[in-house]
Design a protein that fits this description.
It is a single chain. The protein is mainly alpha-helical and 186 residues long. The protein has one domain. The chain is 82% helix and 0% strand. α1 runs antiparallel to α4, α4 runs antiparallel to α5 and α5 packs antiparallel against α6. The longest helix has 39 residues. The chain is elongated and about 70 Å long. The mean pLDDT is 89.
C-alpha cells in the first residue's frame, strides 16, 4: 500500500502513533525498573525518618506517598506494561489495541486534571512545614511571597499542560475512531 493513498496515510499515522507510544512505554518500563532497583539497593532507607531527623514534619499526603511508594511504582509499571501491550497490538492492527489505546488516552487526560488539586495541596504542605513564627519575619514574608508566586506559576503551567494534553489526546482518540482507521483493524 502506498503512503500517498488515503488508506496508506492512515496506516502511516497508525504506525507512527504506535511506534512513538511503544518508545514511551519502553522508557517508562525502564524507569520503573530503575526505581525498583534503587529500592532494593537502598534497602532500609526510610525517607520519612530522614525528614523527621532533620526537623521536617511532612504533611499527611507526603507521608501517604512515602508509605506506598513501592506500590505506586508497581502501579506505574503495570500501566506502562499496559501501554506497551496496546501499542504493540495497535501496531499489529488489532482492534483491542485500538480500543485500549483510546481508553489510555482518556485516562491520562483525566489524570492530568486530577493532579492539579494534589499540586495545590503540595504548596499548602510546604507552607505548613515552615517553622512557627517564620511568617512574621521579613525573610518569612519574602519566602511566603515566593511560595505563592511559585504556586500560581506551577498551577497555571500544569493547567495549560493538562489542557494541551487533553486536546492532543482528544484529537488522537477522534482520529482513531474514524471509519478509515477502524477499517484497518481486525
Amino acid at each position: 500500500m502506498s503512503s500517498s493513498t488515503p488508506s496508506g496515510s492512515v496506516a502511516t499515522f497508525i504506525a507512527a502513533t504506535a511506534k512513538l507510544s511503544l518508545l514511551v512505554a519502553v522508557l517508562s518500563v525502564l524507569w520503573c525498573l530503575l526505581q525498583l532497583l534503587l529500592v532494593v539497593l537502598l534497602g532500609r532507607f526510610d525517607p520519612m525518618d530522614w525528614l523527621l531527623r532533620h526537623g521536617l514534619s511532612p504533611p499527611p499526603s507526603l507521608q501517604w506517598a512515602l508509605q506506598y511508594a513501592l506500590a505506586l511504582t508497581v502501579a506505574m509499571l503495570l500501566s506502562s506494561l499496559a501501554l506497551l501491550a496496546v501499542s504493540w497490538a495497535m501496531l499489529r492492527h488489532r482492534e483491542w489495541g485500538r480500543i485500549g489505546f483510546i481508553v489510555l488516552l482518556v485516562v491520562v487526560a483525566l489524570a492530568n486534571f486530577a493532579m492539579l488539586p494534589l499540586l495545590d495541596g503540595l504548596f499548602d504542605a510546604m507552607r505548613a512545614m515552615l517553622p512557627a513564627g517564620f511568617a512574621a519575619t521579613e525573610e518569612g514574608r519574602q519566602a511566603l511571597a515566593q511560595l505563592q508566586s511559585g504556586r500560581w506559576i506551577a498551577l497555571s503551567g500544569s493547567g495549560i499542560s493538562a489542557l494541551l494534553v487533553a486536546a492532543l489526546h482528544g484529537w488522537l482518540a477522534f482520529k482513531l475512531c474514524r471509519p478509515q482507521v477502524r477499517a484497518l483493524f481486525r
